[in-house]
Write a structure and sequence with these properties.
Blueprint: H1 2-16, H2 18-31, H3 37-65, H4 70-122, H5 128-136, H6 143-156, H7 162-170, H8 176-191, H9 195-249, E1 252-253, E2 256-257, H10 258-284
Antiparallel strand pairs: 1-2
């Protein structure tokens, strides 16, 4: 029953929402989700509708049981259900984009080392297909390993030649830099150039860019350290000292007694600011 609803909503979504869902379709293809676009869209719409109905019914019934007027219950339930449905829809719509961002980050973090490894393999004179097959067997390369597995699958299972297989994966990879690398790989094969030389040059350039990114991040960390020292060490110590002295005199800050404000700052504000700073540093650092 639910599967039929999913398919029906998916078909209607493709028919009437094509201009809005076209970017989603492209991102689902790039993210390599093992699901048809129509099914994904149908599930997204069905879960959104069910969340709206469920929240609306629950809040209306709950408020009515507690003696809240029916009109106020209905308005509150409508606001809550629309908000919930919006968040559910947004999470489903943005999931492929988040997945692509994660895969892109993984590919670009591992690319310098993978290309360097491929250059070493190419020096032995093996065919291009063998290079991708060997890389696909190394799980430490994460998403690049998965991309190489798709190239191997295209050749071994679907009978494509190596150029067509690489082009097929190149059109779906979430990383623009890796797409350019695969495009150059195909161009070298088609023109009969030196694959080893191409890979060695790409490896040098990728490693140089990697070192440059790391150096920039280290410089940024130096700035963050100065900011942390000033804002989260020196300033709190200064204000704690001042408030400790003022608490002996008495008074209030924003209507709160000074000793209460002091405890709130020490046990709440300072820890929260430190957590935000740690999270900021964590999410801004380049992947290694």
């Amino acid at each position: 029953m639910l599967e039929a609803w999913v398919r029906t909503l998916g078909r209607h979504g493709v028919m009437y929402l094509s201009s809005y869902t076209k970017p989603l379709k492209e991102e689902i293809l790039k993210s390599n989700l093992t699901i048809l676009f129509e099914i994904y869209l149908g599930r997204m719409l069905l879960i959104t509708i069910l969340s709206f109905i469920g929240v609306f019914a629950f809040i209306t019934l709950s408020f009515t049981l507690f003696g809240v007027p029916l009109l106020l219950s209905a308005i509150s339930a409508l606001i809550a259900s629309v908000t919930t449905a919006f968040f559910v829809f947004t999470i489903h719509y943005s999931y492929p984009f988040h997945l692509i961002t994660s895969k892109r980050s993984s590919i670009e973090a591992n690319a310098p080392f993978v290309i360097n490894h491929m250059a070493a393999i190419a020096a032995s004179g093996v065919p291009p297909f063998v290079i991708f097959k060997l890389v696909s067997r190394i799980p430490e390369y994460e998403e690049i390993s998965n991309e190489c597995k798709r190239i191997v699958r295209n050749v071994e299972t679907f009978g494509m030649d190596i150029v067509t297989a690489v082009e097929n994966v190149s059109g779906r990879t979430p990383s623009e830099k890796f797409r350019q690398f695969l495009g150059g790989f195909v161009a070298v094969i088609n023109t009969g150039g030196s694959l080893q030389q191409y890979l060695e040059n790409e490896a040098k350039e990728a490693l140089f860019s990697y070192r440059l990114r790391r150096e920039k991040y280290i410089q940024a960390l130096s700035t963050y350290a100065d900011l942390y020292t000033a804002v989260l060490i020196a300033a709190p110590l200064f204000f704690v000292s001042i408030l400790s002295i003022l608490s002996l005199v008495g008074g209030s800050i924003f209507g709160l007694p000074i000793d209460v404000a002091l405890r709130l700052g020490i046990f709440t504000l300072i820890p929260i600011l430190n957590i935000f700073f740690i999270a900021f540093v964590h999410y801004t650092q380049p992947r290694v």
